[in-house]
C-alpha cells in the first residue's frame, strides 16, 4: 500500500533533519546574513585605524587596513574634551538610570494594584503623556523656571520617567500571582515590604530590560544637553562627538590660516567616533543577555 | 539644587502662559516691517580704513582684500588696556570645528578674558544645531549680551526690534569713529546689518572670500598635458573629457558646478534687477535651461564623479585631494582646505584657480558671494553697557598685523604658536585645540576684514590675488543682499530644497530639461512671486 510504503521513508528522514542541499543553502544564507551585519562593523573599526593614503586609495571605506594608525583616536581625545565628556555620559547614564528605575517601578507598582488611591486618573495621566508630548519651548521654559538650566539634572529629570516603560512594568507586576502578595500581607507586610522583598526580586528580567532601555536612552541623548547646557565643558559624549561628525563636513569655510596639514582623514575620524560611542553601551549587553528575551516578551504579550 | 513649591508652580504657569501666548501671539509681537525694508533712511557707518599695517599687496576699492606673504613683522598693540568693565559678558555662538575645551580648562580662553577685562561666558553650539538652539533661547531669553544671529530665523526683523539693541546712534555715519576697528569693516558688509530702517547688528565680514570658483589640480592637468584655463564653454567640456578616465576611476569634476555653469551663460547672481527695479530669479532665465542641459550632458558623458549626487562637501574635497577628480567648485575661503585634503599627495601637489569661460569666449562675469557670513547682535541694554560691549567687539575686530589680532587668532607665543623661519605663526597642538585652530568661535561675534594670507604658502596668496584681479572687476552682486523678504524667511528653505531636488532630477536624467518650466511655475505660485514683490518693495524703498 502506498501508505505503508511511505512510512519507512518518513522515519528515515525526520522533519527536523533536513537534507544536505537544504542545509548548505541555509548555511550560505546565514553566512551572508552574518557578513552583512559584521562586515560594516569591521569596516568601521578598520577605517578608524587607517591612514589617509589607505582611505584615499579605497574610496573612503577601508575593510582591511594594511597598517594601523591611532591618529584618529589621538585627534578626538586630544585636549581631554572627549575624556571628560565620556565621564559626564557615564555619570548621567548611571545616575539617570537609577533614578528612572526607582520612579518608574514605584509608579508602576502603584498603578498595578487595584484600588490604589487615584489609580485610574493617574493611569490616564501616564497614557495622556504617551499620546501628547509638550513642545520644545514649553519644555525649555519649565526647565528654566525650575532653575535646572546649565545643570546635569537638566539631562536627567525631564526624561526620568518614560510612560511606555511604566506601562511595560505595570503589565509585568500585574502578572505576579496575587497569592504571593496576599500571603505576605497576611504575614503583616506593608506595601513597601511587598514591593521591595517580593515584587522586585521576581521582576529582575523586566528590570534588566527597562534599565537597559533607560541606559541606552541616556547614553544616546544629546539634544537635551544642546538645549539646556550653556557650558560646553559639561557636554556629554554624544554631543561632543556630534560636533566632529557634523562639522568636519564644513571645516573648510573657517580654515583660513590654520596651517593644519596632518589631520587624519575625515572618514577615519568619523569612524573612530562611532567606535567610541558604540563600544561602552555594547559592553553592557552580554551581562543582560539572559534576562533580555523574557523581559522583552513581557511587554509583548501582556498589557 | 533647591526646588520650592513656588518655583515649581511658576514653572508650570510659565509653560501655560507660553502655550496661551502661542495662540494669540499677534498681540505681543512687534509690528512687522511689511516686505523688505533695508537701509531705507539709515546712514551706514563711515568706512575708515585702518592704516596701521601695510599689506604686501594692498587691497582695492572694488573688494580685493589685503594680501600678505608672511605675518606682518612686529605687530603692535592698537588698543590701550582691556575694553570691558569687569562684569561678566554672556554670549551665544556657533562653532564649525570641534568644540574647544571649556573656559576652566582652556588657557587661551583665560588669556582672552584677561585681555578683554571680563569673563566672556560663551554658549558654544555646533553650527548645524545652532538654528534650533537659537530659536529655543530666543523664547527663553537665554541668548546673553551678544550673540550670533541665525539668519534663517523666521520673522527676523521682528525679533531684532523686540530683543536687540538698535545700534544706529552708536554706529551710523561718523559715530562709528569711536570704534576704529569696526569702522575698518567694509560698507558692503554693514548693508547686511540694517533691518527695520536701523542698524541692528554687526557684520561677520567675509568680503569677496565667500565667492565661488573652480579649483583645479594643476599637477594633474600638467601630467595630462591639459590647459587648466579653457577659453570657451566647448573648451571647458573638452578639458573635462581630457581629464576623465573612467577605467582608472578618475573623473574631471567632483560634482556638477551649477553656480559656475550659470555664470558661463551670464545669468544674474541668484536674483537680478533691471533699471525699473523689477526682480527676476536666475531660474527664470532661458540661460538656466542651457546650464541645466550642459550639466546634464556632463553627467551623461560620465565626466562627473558618479557618487556626486549624495556626496557631502568633505567627500568631494576628499576626491579632489586624492586625485579622483581634478576640478572642484568652492569658495576662495576653502583654499586652505584644498591643500589640507592633499597633504599626503606629495611635493608636486598644486592647486590652481580657473577663470570661468563665458559664452562669448571672454571670462564670464563673476558672481560675488554674500559679503557677510552672518551678523551678530547685542541685547537691549542701557547706554553704558552697550558702549562697553561695542568696545569689546571693537577689540575683537582688530585686523591682521596688530598684537590683538595675533593673540586672537593664534594665542600666546611659545604656548599656542611659534613663529617659523618665514615669520608665520604655526600653531602648536595646544593651540590647535584651545584656540580652535585659529578659529575660536568669537569670530562669529565679530571679525576683522578677512585678508589673503596663507601661512607658509606665499605663492597661494599671490595666485588668489592674481585671480581676484581678473574677476573681481567683473563682479556681479546679488541685489537682495541687504534686503529682507518675510516669505523667503518662512518658506525660502523649503522652496530651495524643491528647486535643488528638481535640478538633481534633471542632472541625473530622471526628468527632461523641458520639465523646468513647470518647476518654475510651481516655484512662483508657492512663494517665488511673493518673495520677488517683497524684494522689489524693499529695493524701491532703499533706492528711492
From TrEMBL, chain A:
Q: Does the keyword Transport apply?
A: yes
Swiss-Prot/TrEMBL keywords: Cell membrane, Membrane, Transmembrane, Transmembrane helix, Transport
Q: How does the entry describe its membrane topology?
A: Multi-pass membrane protein
Q: Name one Pfam family in it.
A: BPD_transp_1
What sections of the protein cross the membrane? 28-49, 88-111, 123-141, 153-173, 194-216, 269-288
Q: Which family does it belong to?
A: Belongs to the binding-protein-dependent transport system permease family.
According to its UniProt record, where is this protein located?
Answer: Cell membrane
Q: What is its main location?
A: membrane
List, for all copies, the residue spans of the domain called ABC transmembrane type-1. Answer: 86-288
Q: What is this protein called?
A: Carbohydrate ABC transporter permease
Classification of source organism: Bacteria, Bacillati, Actinomycetota, Actinomycetes, Micrococcales
PANTHER family, A to Z: ABC TRANSPORTER PERMEASE PROTEIN MG189-RELATED-RELATED (PTHR43744), POLYGALACTURONAN_RHAMNOGALACTURONAN TRANSPORT SYSTEM PERMEASE PROTEIN YTCP (PTHR43744:SF9)
The record's Gene3D superfamilies line, in alphabetical order, gives: MetI-like (1.10.3720.10)
- Origin organism is Occultella glacieicola
TrEMBL record, chain B:
Q: Which UniProt keywords apply?
A: Signal
Family matches, as InterPro entries: Bact_solute-bd_prot1, TAT_signal
Keyword Kinase in the entry? The reply is no
Keyword Mitochondrion belongs to the record? no
Q: Which family does it belong to?
A: Belongs to the bacterial solute-binding protein 1 family.
Q: Where is the signal peptide?
A: 1-22
Entry-linked SUPFAM superfamilies: Periplasmic binding protein-like II
Which domain of life does this protein belong to?
Bacteria
- In its UniProt entry, the species of origin is given as Occultella glacieicola
Which Gene3D superfamilies would you find in this protein's record? Periplasmic binding protein-like II
Question: In its UniProt entry, what is this protein called?
Answer: Uncharacterized protein
